[in-house]
Amino acid sequence: MRTCSSSSSPGEIASGVTGLSTENASLAKSTTGLLVVVVDTQVTGIRLVHARLACPEVVQQENFKAANALVKQISMLAAAQGGPMRKVAGYFAEAIARRIYCHCPRPSDRTALDSPALDDLLHVHFYKSCPNLKFAHFTANQAILEAFASCRRVHVIDFGLRQGMQWPTLALRPGEPLSFHLTGIGPPQADHSNALQQVGWKLAVLAKNIGIEFHFRGFVAASLANLEPPDAAQTGERQ
């Protein structure tokens, strides 16, 4: 869809994220630092061993917050391993998770291995390791680039926004700087975190670094039927 330029809506931050509070900004920054996937199996293997050695110690000290973080780290590092190492690490993480939540029960029945944060980390690892998803994004971006070859301003509505990993490629197209407006629609998170705003923050930081105008709006909805017409009209653009 083609768009024309317009001023930002009142709650919108130019080259930034709409309605991002200071608390969410700090959380997004910290999340940005955590979303680093190491694919060197030797390095991840060493880190995996250290994490496994540290985990029983913090459990014995009843530092369950640190133990939970280590379980998530072990699960993430194990995803980069193969063969017996991966299986052993997976069983170890599951056993420690059961030990943790035996002493420190949680309100849900989900295991630590099913947490939204871990799911996002594994999705990033899958994206970096598997060429199929990258090819799909490349094909879609190429179609968008051809459709907007002569346009400086682009507005994309992503109906299933997760990590937004395909959009930096579009924003880095050759030619004059692009004004990129992204509206992301995604499902609510089990832990009630504002994942869309965190994605918007990361993209805003990238946009600032490469010198393009960027605006983001995120709408949380379990299905498109839950979106009200005024919500879609708040983008501040005529389509």
Automatic annotation (TrEMBL):
Q: Which domain of life is it from?
A: Eukaryota
Q: Which PROSITE patterns match?
A: GRAS
Q: Which residues form a coiled coil?
A: none
Question: InterPro entries attached here?
Answer: TF_GRAS (IPR005202)
Question: Which keywords fit this entry according to its UniProt record?
Answer: Transcription, Transcription regulation
Report residue spans for region: Leucine repeat II (LRII): 198-230
Q: Where is this motif: VHIID?
A: 154-158
Motif LxCxE motif: which ranges?
53-57
The UniProt family comment states: Belongs to the GRAS family.
Write the protein's name: DELLA protein
Q: Which organism is it from?
A: Canna indica
